[in-house]
């Protein structure tokens, strides 16, 4: 005698009840789509506003623009100064940030890693004006002897040509301040990527006889390469657009190749220092400068996306 037992599987969850999960998914998808469209619309509105307000500058005669030689002669030195400050910051902050992230994620014991990570994260919460005030009152003066040494011993290099500024308010000081400001971005993002490295890959490398550094070089760094690039590009965007810290620290002036002399200027600092009193064509000039900075940051982000898309499929840990 055989007994057949039939069971009915509930299908309500699989099929979705009316007004239940599927309705919620539709609402969430609509909200997500609306949020994405809102971001794009806001970006387009900002770009349109900047272009329309900057249009009088592009149409004005060259002699009416600040400097009397046209808009591009006016803005080009500031573009160079903006890029120089951002590059100095990245050169200083990137290796330090990656090394600190590696220490926190793979070397430090938990009782040390957590406080260090917490302190690094706190650096991101400090307002930029505080960094600027510290840079101009403490750091600038402290770096003057170092600048004198650079001028005496490496003055044959144009980047360190003297005489060194005796106030310390130079492009190199700005780069150091910006490096401290973007350090939490690189460290936090790199740390989160490092801890996501597959443990099986790390254990396999160690089982084959690799040292801890060899394991990191063969598994962690290849896996985290797209994330490191993302953190660096995000930090670059912050450095390019920083305003108050640069305005407080830098003693602006004509473009100079030396990093230890007073001079140079960035676009953001130029706008911040002159916008309150600007009107008429001068106001249009500053908005045009903002449009140029907007385009620079847009190009940087597009380049970052292209680099990440190129390398994410070729991680050495895959």
UniProtKB/TrEMBL annotation:
Ranges annotated as spanning the membrane: 27-51, 71-104, 116-147, 167-189, 227-250, 286-308
GO cellular component labels: plasma membrane
InterPro entries: MetI-like, MetI-like_sf, Phosphate_PstC, Phosphate_Transport_Permease
Region (Disordered): 1-21
Topology within the bilayer: Multi-pass membrane protein
Comp. bias (Polar residues): 1-14
Similarity remark: Belongs to the binding-protein-dependent transport system permease family. CysTW subfamily.
Name of the protein: Phosphate transport system permease protein
Organism: Kocuria flava
Upper lineage: Bacteria, Bacillati, Actinomycetota, Actinomycetes, Micrococcales
């Amino acid at each position: 005698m055989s007994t057949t037992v039939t069971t009915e599987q509930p299908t309500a969850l699989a099929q979705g009840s009316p007004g239940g999960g599927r309705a919620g998914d539709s609402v969430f998808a609509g909200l997500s789509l609306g949020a994405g469209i809102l971001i794009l619309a806001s970006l387009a509105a900002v770009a349109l506003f900047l272009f329309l307000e900057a249009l009088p500058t592009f149409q004005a005669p060259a002699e009416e623009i600040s400097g009397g030689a046209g808009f591009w002669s006016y803005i080009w030195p500031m573009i160079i100064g903006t890029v120089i400050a951002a590059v100095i910051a990245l050169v200083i902050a990137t290796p330090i940030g990656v090394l600190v992230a590696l220490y926190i994620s793979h070397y430090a014991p938990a009782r040390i890693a957590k406080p260090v990570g917490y302190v690094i994260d706190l650096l991101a919460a400090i307002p930029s004006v505080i960094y600027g005030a510290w840079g101009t009152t403490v750091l600038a003066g402290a770096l003057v002897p170092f600048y004198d040494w650079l001028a005496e011993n490496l003055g044959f290099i144009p980047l360190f040509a003297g005489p060194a500024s005796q106030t310390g308010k130079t492009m190199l000081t700005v780069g150091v301040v910006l490096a401290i400001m973007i350090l939490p971005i690189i460290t936090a993002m790199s740390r989160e990527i490092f801890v996501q490295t597959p443990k099986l890959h790390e254990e396999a490398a160690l089982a084959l006889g690799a040292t801890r550094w060899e394991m990191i070089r063969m598994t962690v760094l290849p896996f985290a390469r797209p994330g490191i690039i993302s953190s660096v590009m995000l930090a670059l965007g912050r450095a390019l657009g920083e305003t108050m810290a640069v305005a407080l620290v830098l003693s602006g002036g004509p473009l100079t190749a030396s990093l230890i002399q007073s001079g140079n200027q960035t676009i953001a600092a130029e706008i911040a220092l002159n916008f309150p009193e600007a009107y008429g064509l001068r106001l249009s000039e500053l908005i045009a400068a903002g449009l140029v900075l907007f385009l620079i940051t847009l190009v940087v982000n597009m380049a970052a996306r292209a680099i990440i898309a190129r390398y994410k499929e070729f991680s050495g840990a895959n």
